[in-house]
Design brief:
The chain has an eight-stranded mixed sheet. The relative contact order is 0.11. The two termini are 32 Å apart. It is built from 14 helices and 16 strands. By secondary structure, it is of the alpha+beta class. Helices cover 31% and strands 22% of the residues. The structure holds adenosine-5'-triphosphate (ATP) and manganese (II) ion. Manganese (II) ion binds next to loops.
């Protein structure tokens, strides 16, 4: 039986026609009113049963969570709360849901409880909204790059290069791990016998391979899974997350910052236009959540205002050196409120510092640039001062770092020297160095953690709630 999505039924185009809808029962009131949802929109469609028109046996099986099909006439609703409803003449139970056992009841569940039921939480209004927004953002990411002359590149997920340097890696091997793996004479594991003939890992970033493609296609982007075995049990880190990494030939750091800002604004604007209902629901969720917080910790702006604010204001561009001055003289530094006190130039910024700059000092998104070379990766371009590199991080309120990027070191000699100093084996990076040997040029790129973006746009507070099945220490359920 062909059915119509609820989002299309609610457009009203099929008014007074016979329609079929399929979905999951959210609530059933007075043995008469079914609120039916099929995921196509936040809105339910009200399905009205005439009293006593259906066998009691069937009526009993209309329970929260059950999959049903209704056929009826789409009419304007007499009741409050909805514009259209279906006057049902045929009702079929497609899949029962035992009300004694179905975990997702029509009441407020805690986020922790829903995380434990990640396979069913998508049937709640909140997670429907989050995941529709996630999908829209993903589409906007592709749209932005495709409309601007970038090519989508798939970099390897299993990588043989361990120089990505962005975090702890998960090893990939087909050798037994119970101690019976083949050994070299010195007792170390003989990786020649491993599947790839060498040690391999899950990628932490597609950047290095992405760079080689930018040197042929001009402008590229990746959008794929990345893996970090970081034992950080935070609300902003996942062990498996999706990263967007554009890489552009003939672009310097200023152009890179312009691109990142323009890109973020585009995807937010696109989502504001497409996901109004879902954003409103999440805005209300945030308001409710914050009611339980002390006034000082509540946000000054509602979710949608916060998104608009990002669109309407330039990101504040501040050098690392300026930022250190601000932090050194800040109240929490002087009062020793920071866990890590800032006393000298060169200190790595912790998330408490990033959040101070964004949330307390500038009160807007901030782009920090020209970091000390010592605290950044080997491939970032050294400045004339020989102390700083052309790195940039974008910091967002409530999130901290959302983007990390740089202009890349395009000078062969400088790059090799840096690799030597850091003990990065040149032999293994021969292919990367080739890009600097043959037709090297100024180029730049950045990595944006997709879930951090979804976190910001949805106003959720834990990154585990914006990816369908989160991976984090001690958890790989589902
Ligand atoms: P952080 O300091 O927050 O750990 P990072 O410096 O390790 O970030 P990069 O290596 O620059 O981050 O990665 C690029 C982007 O990927 C970050 O700006 C962030 O948006 C995202 N990201 C990094 N690590 C994670 C993670 N474990 N889970 C989700 N997103 C991440
Ligand atoms: Mn990290």
């Amino acid at each position: 039986m062909k059915h119509t999505k609820i989002i299309d039924l609610l457009s009203g185009n099929l008014l007074l026609q016979e329609v079929t809808a399929k979905g999951w029962v959210r609530t059933f009131r007075n043995n008469q009113f079914i609120a039916l949802n099929d995921g196509s929109t936040l809105q339910n469609i009200q399905c009205v049963l005439e009293l006593d028109a259906f066998p009691e046996e069937t009526i009993k099986r209309v329970t929260t969570g059950a999959a049903i099909m209704v056929q009826g006439v789409l009419v304007e609703s007499q009741g409050k709360g909805q514009k259209y409803e279906i006057q049902v003449f045929n009702l079929e139970i497609l899949g029962d849901s035992d009300p004694e056992k179905y975990p997702i009841q029509p009441k407020k569940h805690s986020l922790e409880f829903l995380r434990e039921n990640a396979h069913l939480r998508i049937r709640t209004n909140m997670f429907g909204a989050i995941m529709r927004i996630r999908s829209t953002l993903a589409y906007a990411v592709h749209k932005y790059f495709q409309d601007n002359g970038f090519f989508y590149v798939n970099t390897p997920i299993i990588t043989g290069s361990d120089a990505e340097g962005a975090g702890e890696m998960f090893q990939v091997t087909s050798l037994p791990i119970d101690g019976s793996a083949p050994r070299n004479e010195d007792g170390s594991i003989n990786y020649k016998e491993d599947f790839f003939g060498k040690p391999t890992n899950l990628t932490v970033s597609g950047q290095l391979e992405g760079e080689t493609y930018a040197m042929g296609l001009g402008s590229i982007y990746t959008f794929g899974p990345t893996f970090r075995a970081e034992n950080s049990n935070t609300s902003r880190h996942l062990a498996e997350f999706w990263m967007i990494e554009p890489e552009i030939a003939f672009l310097d750091l200023d152009g890179n910052m312009d691109l990142a800002e323009d890109f973020i604004k585009f995807v937010i604007k696109y989502t504001l236009e497409k996901c109004e209902d879902d954003l409103k629901l999440l805005e209300q969720r945030l308001l409710d959540e914050e009611k339980s917080k002390p006034q000082a910790e509540r946000s000054e702006m509602s979710l949608i205002d916060k998104l608009r604010f990002v669109l309407d204001n330039n990101f504040k561009r501040v050098s690392y050196t300026e930022a250190i001055d601000i932090l050194k003289n800040s109240k929490p530094n002087k009062n020793k409120k920071f866990q890590y006190l800032i006393d000298e130039w060169g200190a790595d910024l912790q998330s408490e510092h990033e959040r101070y700059l964004v949330e307390k000092h500038f009160k807007c998104p901030v782009i920090l640039f020209d970091y000390p070379a010592k605290i950044k990766a080997f491939y970032m371009r050294l400045n004339k001062d020989e102390k700083t590199v052309r790195a940039m991080d974008i910091l967002f309120p409530g999130i901290g770092e959302i983007v990390g990027g740089s202009q890349r070191e395009e000078r062969y000699d400088v790059l090799v020297e840096k690799m030597k100093a850091l003990n990065i084996p040149e032999e293994e990076m021969w292919w990367y160095l080739d890009t600097r040997r043959f037709g090297s040029c100024v180029h730049s790129g950045f990595g944006l953690g997709f879930e951090r973006l979804v976190l910001f746009v949805t106003g959720m507070t834990n990154i585990r709630d914006v990816i369908p099945f989160p991976r984090y220490p001690q958890n790989a359920e589902f």
